[in-house]
Predict the structure.
Amino acid sequence: MAFTTNQGKTATSLSEINVTPLVDVMLVLLIIFMVTAPMLQTGIDVELPETKNVKEVNPKETIVISISREGSIYYGSDAIHFSSIPERLKNDTRNTKESIFLRSDKDVKWNSIVSVIDMIRGAGFTEIKLVTKPFKDLPRR
């Protein structure tokens, strides 16, 4: 496309894309995503116990119940009361054959873990999987 100037000369339009604003916007978005991505991690921060035999499982839709170091119980990322576990499980699952993943801090008393397992079993669920992390081998000398 051509334009005519006030002096009667013909000038062509600039048809190149100005990349500088695009790069600026992309860098800002990159920084925003880098800062917010760690915050989007779901779940409760617990120090899992270490075991040698860990099976990698990453199902799409899982039900995770976590017990924090202080003994608080979380259903996903929501803090719940101990007695409301069966109600939440029955509302969120279609059948009792689904696996329930139980994460617990390594310093939680065994009594708390057993009580939560008993409550899950009382709701009719038998597939309870305990979540651990791989054991870190010490370097051999």
Summary: The chain has a mean pLDDT of 81. Strands lie at 2-4, 10-12, 50-51, 63-67, 73-75, 78-80, 100-104, 128-130, 133-134.
